[in-house]
Write a structure and sequence with these properties.
Keywords: GTP-binding, Lipoprotein, Magnesium, Metal-binding, Myristate, Nucleotide-binding. This protein is of the alpha/beta class. The chain is built from 4 helices and 7 strands. Bound molecules: guanosine-3'-monophosphate-5'-diphosphate (G3D).
């Protein structure tokens, strides 16, 4: 794995509300590596080349933060969207649901598969994937592949399976 961004590389985009656990997830994936952040690009916390062909770009969405106008440029080659939610924060599920809906209404993401990561499953009060799935209205997304996976970015649980599933979804879509 290395860092860097090539505008033409297929992208996997990681999104979610602030505090969902995106930086923690990225740090886990980058263990032992130095992470470069690109404040000039926007709110992405980093871009990681998963392999020669695929890179992962991370964005905060929703919350008090405003999307930069140029974030859509990153959707051009987006092959999959990973949407991270804090499954222990029931109070922000409606906000997460709205943010996901808004992103998925982007024309450029039509038909793009979505992996929802129900993060922080290590916490005792975390919602089940069924509860998260219902809260985010995932069954209403009938025009694309979607999956939900529980994980703990902090403990590194469920991440391998999630990325394996993402690759499979990309191949199937
Ligand atoms: P963001 O990048 O999406 O904004 P962060 O989110 O990665 O900064 O995570 C926000 C907070 O949640 C951090 O705690 C982080 O340690 C915690 N967190 C992230 N993933 C997990 C997880 O899987 N389990 C638990 N228990 N906590 C997690 P702080 O205290 O630093 O704000």
């Amino acid at each position: 794995m290395g860092q860097g961004h090539s505008a033409s590389a297929p992208q996997v985009i990681l999104m979610g509300l602030d505090s969902a656990g995106k930086s923690t997830l990225l740090a886990k994936l980058l263990t032992g590596q130095v992470m470069e952040t690109s404040p000039t690009i926007g709110f992405n916390v980093g871009t990681l080349n998963l392999d020669k062909k695929t890179s992962l770009t991370v964005w905060d969405v929703g919350g008090q933060k405003h999307m930069r106008p140029n974030w859509r440029l990153y959707l051009d080659d987006c092959e999959a969207l990973i949407f991270v939610v804090d499954s222990s924060d029931q109070g922000r599920m409606a906000e997460a649901k709205a943010a996901l809906k808004k992103i998925l209404s982007e024309e450029k993401l039509r038909g793009v598969p979505v992996m929802v990561l129900a993060n922080k499953k290590d916490l005792p009060n975390s919602m089940t994937i069924r509860e998260v799935s219902t809260s985010l209205d995932l069954p209403s997304y009938t025009d694309r592949l979607w999956e939900i996976q529980a994980c703990s970015a902090l403990k590194g649980l469920g991440l391998q399976q999630a990325f394996t599933s993402v690759n499979k979804m990309i191949k199937r879509s």
